[in-house]
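[Q] Does anyone have a clean structure-token version of this?
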Amino acid sequence: MNTAVRALTSRSIALWELPFVITREYMMVFSLSFLVLLSAFGLIYLKDVNRRLNNQFEVMQTQNVQLHNEWTQLLLHKTALANQERVAQLAHQELNMSMPASGAVVMIDAK
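[A] Here you go.
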């Protein structure tokens, strides 16, 4: 072994003993590395928010379709209940009502 190798292996060098000078280049590399890391975390966060909002949107679309179908059914039911023939039939069956004779109807003029 030569002398240089023996000198390096015989003494362990601590990190704080190494000469470290903070130069402009080191600061730029550190700053840019930090900004890249920050950008990566921001991208991860935005992707997560986007995924959650898309899931919520799909759930709300499904709910909208269900509510629209229910509204259509209720509108159909309302139309069936408001049919004049059905009203006359229910009045005759359940309340024993009947249409008055044509001579029994009296017309009053509203002034």
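[Q] Thanks! Anything notable?
[A] Residues 21-97 form one domain.
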